[in-house]
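Usage

Read records sequentially. Each one opens with the input sequence:
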Amino acid sequence: MEAITKQSDFIFPPMSLRAGLALLAVGTQGPTLRQLLTFLGSENTGHLDVAIARLLTNVSTWPQLSFAAGIFVDRTLFLSPEFVSSAVSAHHAVARSVDFKNQPAAATAEVNAFIEQATVGRIRNLLSDGAVHGDTKVVLANGMHFKATWARRFDPSDTVRGNFYRRDGKPVRVPFLSDAGMQYAESFDAPGLGFKVLQCFYKMVGPDGRLDSKAPCFCMLMFLPHRRDGLPDLLRLAVTEPDFVMRCAPRREQVVRPCKVPKFKFSFTFDAVNALCQLGLSAPFADAADLSWMVSNMPPEGLYVSAVRQTCAVEVDEEGTTAVAAMYAATRPTYSPPERPPPPPMRFVADHPFMFAIVEYEKAEVLFLGHVMDPSKED
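and closes with the structure output:
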């Protein structure tokens, strides 16, 4: 909600964050482990490893998405064999020894190079100068890159400029993608919070880059509140109800006229510790955190997570979407013909703050979730 107050565009990757926390859980015990398992909705680390391994194995076959995870440990510590085994086999992570204590700049450069490669060069310098220092012991990092083209490309000749009204009411002139006609769309008129959802599909392609009807089904869902100030309530539902995004996915086509969505491109960096604590996950970030299964020679002062920093970037234009994410921690629908008469044409003009999600249907996996407050900015 802080991003809304600051009129900032926002994006974060739930899948990337969950994968990072699942990897962290492997190295924990006691109350810290129990709290992580509860937060991640898993019975034990065995079940968690199986779920993450299955997810990442699927991800490795999706040509639109790439994911990489790394563990960087100071040379004064030794990762436990059990932790390394689980990290490599289930979490597809690589483990590297670096010299945080004596050469923090070089260690920072190595972590940043790993993330830059994982995100195909879209995210550079995840760790800023001074982010790690002599007291840094372990860095868990992952990177994710998503790039896909629209199944039905927006015609650049239909792109028009218009007003987008920020939360403070100030209009800004921006280009709008336009594609009036049959679209998967739905209107929800709940008491106190009405909103519309527009669903834009990406091309389904196989590992060879060719169209494949059996390939994963990705799409972007755009949630437009009826009220110009309705975004906070919409986001609250998305955060507190885990299935909210997929539950609202339109299940049939209807005429949408006009249909306008602003082009947008931005990046966002934040430390997720405060947000996670507010959601009930605090044990890993306390001095009493139990990370004793991570290293075999635990330092006398112990280990705890001091930061969970995430950097994301997204770009939406006529061709498609590119989205990337990086983190460090010191059912495909079945559409059937409508049985009732088609509704009258829906108007969908995203000319005020809205929420969006990039999802994969078969696994009901939300890859990215964010909101647009001012598409004229390119942060």
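Summary fields computed downstream for this record:
- Residues 331-338 have pLDDT under 50 and may be disordered.
- The chain has nine helices and 16 strands.
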